[in-house]
Amino acid sequence: MRHRLVRRRPRRILVRVLTGVAAVCTVFGLGLVACGLQETPGPSISSPVAVNGAPPAPAGGSVAAPIPHSEPVRIEIPVLGVDSELMTLGLDSGGAMQVPPGAYPAGWYKGAPTPGELGPAIIAGHINWNGHAGVFSKLYELKPGDQVAVHRRDGSTALFRVDDVAEYPKHDFPTKTVYGNIDHAGLRLITCGGDFDSDAHSYLDNIVVYASFVGPATI
Amino acid sequence: MASANSSARTRVLRPWLGAGLAVGGAAVMVTMAGVAGMSLASAQVPTESSVVIPMAVYQSNDGDSSADSSGNNSADSSGNNSADNSGNNSADSSNSSSNGENVYYGKGKGGTGGDPAPAPAPAPAPAPAPQVEVLPAGAVAAGDGSTSPAGYLIGALALTSVGGAAAVAARSARRQRLGRHEA
Q1: Most buried among A59, A60, A97, B3, using CB within 10 Å?
Q2: What is the dihedral of CA A56, A57, A62, A67, to 10 degrees?
Q3: What is the largest CA-CA distance in chain A?
């Protein structure tokens, strides 16, 4: 009997160790869940406003001459698999930009130039909404050189090249940098980012993608 | 006798060994996850100086240009339209006292007349029309923080792991009981 008891001890210790490992894994998994539920974008986003108050210059390559006014109807971002219709956005009663009522579609701010016109065209979309990933849920993954296509009502397609991706605290949003005059046809894609403040029910940052018009083309 | 006492003591402590290891390990992992989360958060938010300083420079430039143009224009108009030199001097001195950048005009007009008249300040270029007609105020509220399907999936996996851990613990306890009976 004594010999048998001695043989069982290592197994009991092994079971206890396994139980401990399982508990640790559970706690770590719950931590990962807590982090994952915050939909936190990656930390590799730059902040070009740190250089000066002007918007980032177009990345390498040529910038096309602006094209006439025509409202946008659809946006495509091939590298992200985004293909969304566009609605029209105005201002709310507080003077802030309206946002689309759902995760889809994205919206074009009608107070700004149309994509391809001289100046910064502005398109906003949700990162998430009502339990669904939004049209711009992966916007922070864009990198300089990526392409964005905006289809217009006149049948043309304005092709843009990403110049930069920036993340700004909402309380210090650089309005003039994002919406200010530029010397070419540009595009601003805007969504939320950073940590989510559950008390304020709002994200702390905005992610802004700066892009330049490279021509009426197809992708 | 001493060895019997030590074996009895270790037998008493052994059931707590696994639990102690688990709790300690869990505490370490939670601490590590917390530290990692804090470092991520600090890496995401740009430093205050990197954001505020350029904006402050931009606004102060605007303020300077408006102040200069208004100050110079008023000094010129008062000086040119008035026929009385003393009036000019008084007007200029008041201007120079209120705005240090107008001292040059005061010297030119208050002299004996030998100095050449200063060239009129160039009219400020008209501001270009804003390409965005009405600037939206503040930031854009483009997200409600709601969970994505991926979040629900991760949550389900976590709950499954909790169940698995509970099952392992229950099986361990049952085996312990069986082992005692057999012994």
Answers
A1: A97
A2: 70
A3: 95
- The number of domains in chain B is 2
User: What is the SS3 assignment for A113?
Assistant: coil
* B27 within domain boundaries: no
The answer to whether A195 and A38 have CB atoms below 8 angstroms apart is yes
The number of residues in chain B equals 183
Please provide the CATH number assigned to the domain covering A48-216. Answer: 2.40.260.10
Query: For an interface test with A, which of B23, B28, B32, B144 has the most A Cβ atoms less than 10 Å from its Cβ?
Result: B144
Q: How far apart are CA A15 and CA A175, in angstroms?
A: 60
* Alpha carbon distance B28, B161 (integer Å): 19
- Residue A132's DSSP bridge partners are A129
d(CA B172, CA B169): 5
- Do the domain assignments include residue B44? no
Condensed to tens digits (0 to 9), the pLDDT of residues B98-134 reads 343 333 333 334 344 445 667 777 777 777 889 999 9
